[in-house]
Amino acid sequence: MEVCWNPMVPELSVSNFEESFNFYQNLLGFKVRNRRSNPDFAYLENEKVQVMLEQIHDAGWVTGEMEYPLGRGVNFQMELTDISPILERLNAANVLSGQREFSVQDPDGYLLRFTQYLGEKSK
Questions:
Q1: How do residues 84-119 score in pLDDT, each as one tens digit?
Q2: What's the per-residue H, E or C state across the chain?
């Protein structure tokens, strides 16, 4: 299987790396492609969706005040083959209600939008 690195991957600055890492891995089903510490960082993927998480730190790319909710004015559409397992885990964790397209905020307030393509209706 060919390793694919997407040409554009969002890197999210997070206030509590372990909390965010667990959210993305355990609830959203992302797998680790790369992880390092000092500062804590993870490159994650779920199917073709890739995202990076990095603990907020003094030497980071901070361009303004970092206060909750982070990521104001942006949402990330993430198309997966089947979003049902994610919906089930988020519902069990009491953090979501939704259908075949849903949005959820991560622990820092970034808005994540997951979609499942259901095909076109026949005419």
A1: 898 888 878 877 644 467 888 999 999 888 887 766
A2: CCCCCCCCCCEEEECCHHHHHHHHHHHCCCEEEEEECCCCEEEEEECCEEEEEEECCCCCCCCCCCCCCCCCCCEEEEECCCCHHHHHHHHHCCCCCCCCEEEEECCCCCEEEEECCCCCCCC
Q: For the chain, list residues with pLDDT below 50.
A: 97-99, 121-123
Bridge-based pairing of strands 11-14 and 49-55 is: parallel
The verdict on pTM exceeding 0.85 is: no
CA 38 from centre of chain? 21
* Total number of residues shown for the chain: 123
CATH superfamily of 11-56+72-115: 2,3-Dihydroxybiphenyl 1,2-Dioxygenase, domain 1 (3.10.180.10)
